[in-house]
Amino acid sequence: MSNNRNFKNLLELNLAILFIATSGPLGRYIDMPVPVIIGFRALLAAVLLFAFCKWRNISFMIANKDRGVVLLSGVLMGVHWVTYFYALQLSNVAIGMLSLFTFPVITTILEPLLLKTSFQKVQLLLAVLVLIGIYFLVPDFDVQNTNTQAVGFGVFSAICYSLRNILMKNKVSNYNGSVLMWYQVVIIGVLSLPLIWIMDSSGITRQWPAVLALALLTTAVGHTLFLRSFRKFTVTTASIMSCIQPIYGIILGIFFLHEIPSFYTIIGGLLILSSVVIESIRSVKEK
Q1: Using an 8 Å Cβ cutoff, are 13 and 241 in contact?
Q2: pLDDT digits over 211-254, tens only?
Q3: Each residue's pLDDT tens digit, 176-201
């Protein structure tokens, strides 16, 4: 029974990662200003999550002491989304997604400091393996190169994402993941409203199916499942395991955008995938 439960937890986490991975191809495909994409994504996701929570009779109550943390996590999530999508638009699915995946290394360093958890050397070693994999995939560093700029946006996005995940770690045990995600997308949507009004948002009339997929699969379903995984795994473990996300995204990019990865992309992807498999096996044995 315990093995079945562990397998179910791992399956749910990987399903969450697959849905979140659709953000790469969708971020490249949708042709609108980044803040407008993020604004519509957040507002649509807010409607979908609100309907889901009402259907399941889930309470929206948040204790006063937790409201500041939820607000900050929403702001961090918004900055993460915006900078990540700029990374995608400046480069391609592979570079955009893989630059974001410095966040397991960042999480490995920050989690013990901020949550006062024990430091495990094996997680640092796996994070280093991920970093080596990413090294094979990023271009030569030249500040005039848009790919290099994309990596910069991706790394900053990773810092925001890591901090948001750590902030949420102590909240998912007290609140439903869908409710926490709803508050975050509402915050992002409200902050984005002026930008939607100012910038050109006319593209939504012909690209609403892709934006809806981004709101439903990537955001409402994917991120909610990922938040739920924090009940079963540490933030560091979930982060390292989620490094399979670029592989999913690159595969989706091949099929839908015809972006073929290079030989070095394949090598880096194999290194990243190896760390995910090792961490998955290790986490099951610990459970």
Answers
A1: yes
A2: 999 999 998 888 888 877 877 777 667 767 777 888 899 899 99
A3: 888 999 999 999 999 999 999 999 99
Each residue of 35-82: pLDDT tens digit?
Answer: 999 999 999 999 999 999 999 999 999 999 999 999 999 999 999 999
Which token pair is 126? 């796996």
Contact 152, 159 (CB under 8 A): no
Place of tokens 């709101």: 215
- Residue by residue, DSSP assigns the chain as -HHHHHHHHHHHHHHHHHHHHTHHHHHHH--S-HHHHHHHHHHHHHHHHHHHHHHTT------HHHHHHHHHHHHHHHHHHHHHHHHHHHS-HHHHHHHHTTHHHHHHHHHHHHH-PPP-HHHHHHHHHHHHHHHTTS----TTSHHHHHHHHHHHHHHHHHHHHHHHHTTTTTS-HHHHHHHHHHHHHHHHHHHHHHS--TTHHHHHHHHHHIIIIIIIIIIHHHHHGGGTS-HHHHHHHGGGHHHHHHHHHHHHH-----HHHHHHHHHHHHHHHHHHHHHHHH-
